[in-house]
Specification:
The structure is a single chain. This protein is mostly helical and about 250 residues long. The protein contains nine helices and no strands. The radius of gyration is 21 Å and the shape is elongated.
Length: about 250
């Protein structure tokens, strides 16, 4: 019953979020600011994590490839498909759930306990739409770019690992990442990213918006936002994989 109650409140909250904006120009300006805050500021962590994960995937595949009958370019192919199909969308989504999701929940939760949201409501502003809709649009637009960056940087990290360690000839790795390339894998990853962006932003905003109490409750709401977003991302990953790749 508690689940149904929370889900019902979430649906009502989202109906308020997607109600018609009062002034589209203000929403556009706010969306651009949120792209910088939630999207552009996440580029650094995505690059750092992706380059090392690409290197680790390449090296682990090389050191565990014991069958002499398998060609070495399989390593590049494995790194490419791992980055495209799973890491650059789902794993980066989980990372952003921790960084972006906690930021959103904390920001809106702080506004709730300091009565800034109540002040917006007193002025006749739809606070749910004004605070949350620009964030949702910003992440759904910008996160696919983060995924594309992760793909490119991850494959580059694998290539650098080949050069630095000498575990695999560079030519074999480059041939592997080009071998039997399926462009739909990129489309599939970007579609998943859009769903993940919506989940991260809406769930975290819902938790922050409904905070009751003091600063301690803001921290708990931030934690719940990250946990629930991560669970929903993994569930969505299973569903979309079955629908799009089966």
């Amino acid at each position: 019953m508690r689940f149904l109650s929370v889900f019902g409140r979430y649906v009502i909250f989202m109906s308020r979020v997607f109600s018609r904006p009062e002034k589209a120009r203000i929403y556009l300006k706010q969306t651009i600011l949120e792209m910088e805050s939630l999207g552009f500021n996440s580029v650094g962590i995505v690059i750092i994590i992706s380059i090392f994960i690409g290197a680790v995937i390449t090296l682990q595949t090389r050191y565990n490839l014991e069958n002499p009958l398998l060609p070495l370019y399989i390593i590049g192919l494995t790194a490419r498909d791992t980055m495209l199909l799973e890491f650059s969308s789902t794993m980066v989504g989980l990372i952003l759930a921790g960084k972006v999701g906690s930021n959103i929940a904390s920001e809106i939760g702080h506004m709730r306990i300091t009565e800034q949201i109540d002040a917006l409501e007193m002025m006749g502003v739809n606070s749910a739409s004004y605070l949350v809709l620009p964030k949702i649009i910003a992440t759904m637009v910008f996160n696919p770019f983060l995924t594309a960056i992760s793909m490119s940087v991850g494959l580059f990290g694998g290539w650098m690992a080949c050069i630095i360690t000498g575990a695999l000839p560079s030519a074999d790795y480059l041939y592997g990442i080009q071998y039997y390339f399926i462009p739909f894998y990129i489309v599939y990853a970007l579609i998943k990213t859009v769903f993940y962006a919506f989940i991260i932003t809406s769930v975290s905003a819902f938790q922050g918006y409904n905070v009751k109490g003091g600063a301690l409750e803001v921290g708990r709401a931030s934690t719940r936002g990250v946990v629930f977003s991560s669970i929903l991302i993994l569930m969505t990953d299973v569903i979309l994989t079955q629908l799009m790749l089966a």
